[in-house]
Amino acid sequence: MSEHSHDSVWRQLESYYQTSDPAPLTRALCQLMAEYATEQGESRQMAQLVTIFLSREIRYHRQVERLRDREELRAADLKSLAGKRSIALQDMIEQTKQTPAQTSKSEIARQLLLAECYYQVQEPDKVVAHLENALADGAEEPVVYFALGYNRYRLALESFEPVVEIIDSGPRSDLLSFQRNCLQAVSAFENALTGHSSDSEVYEWIGRVLETAGFEEAAHEAFDKADDLAYSDDGLGSPGPAGASVSRSPTEQAAHREPITKEEIEQFGRQLEGSHDIAELSPDDGDLRN
């Protein structure tokens, strides 16, 4: 173990936050990645990979800022810089794939690093795969489930795009598949619930996904819960502005956080009707993107 390598991770992470002001999801995943890579007893290999990733991202964002400070900003320069970043990220992916993890904690860090790299190069299918790997290895933090739900939703939207063009004459099974994929995203979001007021944002996303998939009643329920939590101090019973309580017993809270099962997803698919507005399938989800 190298304390110097571990210290470098945290120095680079702080610099990364100051230089790039990353989106909240990226910030949270990088923080978790660094924690796993620098846990006591971990080898320096994974810490070094995380440091390299952060240093390259810092360099990219600094170069972007230098271009923006020019009197004349040319699109070609930004495009060239983005291309170089993509090459650097692909190289980072290859390095990470070729570096074996020595412990389960290092393996989680490795999977999170791969997920973040694929997130930056816009490949949500691979992001989902590596987040699922991280969960299987024991990374059951809420942020990992949240990231999984978000990227499952992105993947569902991307997969559905060709269906939109032929929805009037296309097979009904395509829409059912989309809705099942959305429910799988909801299931991941549900696992991100913590029982605190921060759940308000999670419920907002649950509502957004359900609304997109055509489950209007369930979506409204999720939005209502998001509003209730937004007006409470801790999300576990503080009164809202009108004095209404959102308190639930521990049993009710546990039941509420029960994730959707595979059987329920299949049951929903069989029960769906074809009366959903396709125009709703392109919500603005830019607040979590870089």
Describe this structure in words.
The protein is mainly alpha-helical and 290 residues long. The protein has two domains: 1-140, no CATH class; 146-290, no CATH class. It has helices at 3-20, 24-37, 44-68, 75-98, 104-120, 124-136, 142-165, 172-191, 199-213, 216-230, 250-256, 262-271. The longest helix is centred in the first third of the chain and has 25 residues, at 44-68. It is globular.
Number of β-strand runs: 0
**Average pLDDT metric:** 79
Strand percentage lies at under 5%
Rg (C-alpha, Å): 21 Å
Instruction: Please give the domain count.
Output: 2
Instruction: Tell me the overall shape.
Output: globular
- Please write the string of helix (H) and strand (E) elements: HHHHHHHHHHHH
Structural class: mainly alpha
Q: Largest beta sheet, briefly?
A: none
Distance between the termini: 33 Å
Count of helix runs = 12
Q: Helical residue percent? A: 55-70%
Q: How are the elements arranged and paired?
A:
Blueprint: H1 3-20, H2 24-37, H3 44-68, H4 75-98, H5 104-120, H6 124-136, H7 142-165, H8 172-191, H9 199-213, H10 216-230, H11 250-256, H12 262-271
Helix pairs in contact: 1-2, 1-3, 2-5, 3-4, 4-5, 5-6, 6-7, 7-8, 8-9, 8-12, 9-10
